[in-house]
Write a structure and sequence with these properties.
seven-stranded parallel sheet; 41% helix; single chain; globular; two-stranded parallel sheet
Length: 346
């Protein structure tokens, strides 16, 4: 199949695009490669995708442009006839949305509108897009289920991702565009984002500096390994959303619709205490962490836990990589990648 992967210079987009290329698909990546975090890391990911596309199997092409640029998006869809679109581009980061909400409007709202319109007019067979566990917001019922309401986001980032789900439903209803939204739970692993906890903790510990531990370490998180996320994304993309014949308009279930629309959680379904996560990192690095215990940050939630029964029922998949194993793999990658970078002249 020919697949557009937006945000393919990003953490999840890179892994998804690489898997698609390796299985033989024609992949077109679309990314502006902004400077929200280290562009060198993004360029290294892109170089690996170019290398993968040059081997026997699938193919790879790259469009360096902004999704908020409607003309650039339209050109991309005119030049290529996509069977599937996997939309992973977004302005990420919970806390950054407190500082620069306008960047979230451009990327997460304007950019997503452009993708919806392009998919509609090109009659794309299925749009799969990234949402987030953050949409559960003030909800404290555990585990989080797609059947629960999500109308109380605690930060602007989550509000824009919830808006994406609602926008997708309107296009599924009006234009019969099959859409599947995926709520990711605390993704970690090799080639991750430097602003996320595991990356930051590893760097600071190797520099013999204290690590900031918010909420005094009392968080629990449904940490989900990147390979499990990528596999779930591709399997969901391969199973286009269809109308739910049992959907009841008098008692509407938020997870489905009479339109071709679905929402799935993708999480490990085994919440881990933050202190246990740090202990796994200490074991992988072979050194103890110095902790700087801090209060909870604005917009943060104390706990997350995913119910993935819908994903398993409809897609036949559930993540299962243990945290200790995932953290070990990340540390192996981190040491290899940054040792290689330091050994490269210039």
């Amino acid at each position: 199949m020919k697949v557009l992967v937006t945000g393919n210079a990003g953490f999840i987009g890179f892994h998804v695009a690489k898997r698609l290329i390796e299985r033989g698909d024609e992949v077109v990546g679309f990314d502006i490669v902004n400077s929200y975090y280290d562009p060198a890391l993004k360029e290294a990911r892109l170089a690996l995708l170019t290398e993968a596309g040059g081997r026997q199997g699938g193919s790879y092409a790259f469009v360096r442009a902004d999704l908020a640029d409607l003309a650039a998006v339209e050109r991309c869809f005119v030049e290529h006839e996509f069977d599937r679109v996997i939309h992973l581009a977004a302005q990420a980061g919970v806390r950054y949305s407190l500082e620069d909400p306008h960047s979230y409007v451009q990327s997460n709202l304007v950019g997503f509108t452009n993708i919806l319109e392009a998919c509609r007019h090109s009659k794309v067979g299925h749009l799969t897009y990234a949402s987030t566990s953050s949409v559960y917001g003030a909800n404290t019922k555990m585990p989080f289920s797609e059947h629960d309401g999500v109308d109380h986001p605690l930060q602007f980032y989550a509000a824009t991702k919830r808006a994406n789900e609602l926008m997708a439903h309107s296009y599924s209803n009006l234009f019969e565009l099959p859409t599947t939204g995926l709520r990711f739970f605390t993704v970690y692993g090799p080639w991750g984002r430097p602003d996320m906890a595991l990356f930051k903790f590893t760097r600071l510990m190797l520099e013999d500096k204290p690590i900031p531990v918010f909420n005094h370490g009392n968080h629990t998180r449904d940490f989900t390994y990147i390979d499990d996320i990528a596999e779930g994304v591709i399997r969901a993309s391969d199973a286009p959303a269809a109308p739910d014949p049992g959907w009841n308009a008098e008692s509407p279930d938020p997870s489905g619709s009479s339109a071709p629309f679905r929402i799935f959680n993708i999480g490990n379904s085994e919440p881990v205490k933050l202190m246990d996560y740090i202990a796994a990192l200490e074991e992988a690095l072979g050194r103890k962490a110095e902790l700087e215990l801090l209060p909870m940050q604005p917009g943060d939630v104390p706990n997350t836990s995913s119910d993935t029964s819908e994903l398993e029922t409809h897609v036949g998949y559930r993540p299962q990589t243990p945290v200790k194993e995932g953290v070990r793999r990340f540390v192996e990658w981190y040491r290899a990648h940054y040792t290689a970078r330091e050994a490269t002249p210039g």
